[in-house]
Amino acid sequence: MRAGAGAAPLRRQEARVPGGALWSAAALAVAALVALPVLSVVWLALNPTENIWPHLLATTLPRYLANTAILALGTGALAAAAGTGAAWLVAMYRFPGAAVIEWLLLLPLAVPAYVGAYALVDFLEYSGPVQGALREAFGWTGARDYWFPAIKTRGGAAVVLAAALYPYVYLLARAAFREQPGGAYEVARALGTGPVALFLRVGLPLARPAIAVGTAIVMMETVADYGVVSFFAVQTLTTGIFTTWLEMGNAGGAAQIACLILGMVLALLALERHARRRLRFHQSARQSRPWRRARLTGARGWAATALCLIPFLAGFALPVGVMAAQALANPEAWLSPGLARALAHTLTTGGLAALATVGAALMLVYGLRIGGHAGLRRLLPLTGIGYAAPGAVLAVGLLIPLAALDHRLADLWLAVTGDDPGLMLTGTAFAVILAYVVRFFAIGQGAADAGFDRVPPSLPMAARSLGRTAAGALRAVHLPLMRGTVGSALLLVFVDCVKELPATMLLRPFNYETLATRAHEKASLENLGDASPAALLVIAVGLAAVALLARTNLRETRA
Fold this sequence. Notes:
Low-confidence stretches: 1-15, 281-287
Number of helices: 26
Number of strands: 2
Shape: globular
Strand order of the largest sheet: 1-2
Strand content: under 5%
Radius of gyration: 26 Å
Mean pLDDT: 83
């Protein structure tokens, strides 16, 4: 308590530094820019040029809404079961390969869900290896001789999404199980509680808030997904935005559907925040003894190994294996000029977006800290809403105002110079980069806020007493001490930009490909050979983020 009380006066002194008002204005401008797309979606929904909401409500909207809700619930349930079960086994037992499996279970985070969809269909379709092996083994000659479940269904989409997203539940549940006091388990075991009852009556209730947080994140990602549902032809609210906007030409109707998605996501976000607040009531006491993991041997140990490997195989090994096999079978695809251009576009847009996102986040957080206006801190929740909004929603909110601004700028330039510059904003990658900045701004903001918290207030005060300006103190004191945090934020934002699909598809200029859009378009045309190099490159970038995450978790575990 003393430390917290002493920090407040130091921060108030920081607020009175020269130039604080300018930094506050910059923070306000950044916050307005990040919140603008969401506000634009709401305005477009309330002021459509042609109100087709009654038509949507009477025709396709109930199907969109039902499919989205069922898919989100199904994916959440599957991910919660896989993530919680794996976390319980890893945290509470020692079995063959447990030390390696604990980290293998993180690897599906590197694989975009749409890549998993391509791989599953290729593996299980009629001409795939599974059905081919069945026909050869039993002498079947055609599809009429046997029954095989359909793959491109709502259930198949839920399986693919759960295999890609369960690590969100696994990470939080594993941490919750490890933080629980061992005394509670010892008392339960002394009273005759068996392993299953121990999980159901002790472990699961104590970890329920963490599991709810992870499940809410999974469901938000499911609602926002476009790649899997479009490939599986499942009509959801996200595909409804594409249909209403691109095929029906009605931006207002697309904005109204986008508002419905935003409402669902905000409801899930409220559930996640509520569960996160409850987490503090289940932390173990400082002196409590952790649970000593029991050793599983024989058949039980190998059963635990097999159960933990199932989600890893479905979420990582299968997609990577199928894509690698396709890439080896089609080596000429690696030499395609389209792949090189897509890679260059991906690196350019992702790199610029990561720099802009983290730079703007540093400006916002630093401006709020030294500006001296406590009311400005109320802007922070608004700047994080972009991360909760799906990429398709942000695309609707960005493209319409940017297109209007683009035409006015072009007319102004034409009037002044006599030359037609074309579309400078929507005709280039600017709109894509701006969408990435808004979409992933919360990552940069969270990292910046945590980094500034770790800098003792006395250090920048000493720098300013020696004549440094606020900007000079930021360069000389804060940034060197926050180098690791800033680097991690840059990498995480870059990886998310590389994997982002719906916003890129809606906002990219004509004939402008990234790795994500190239993989999706080639796979949609049943050309998995050409899609595989782009998909593997996306996975390779994602593995860098997973390695960073594993390193951070390992460091925290040792601490």
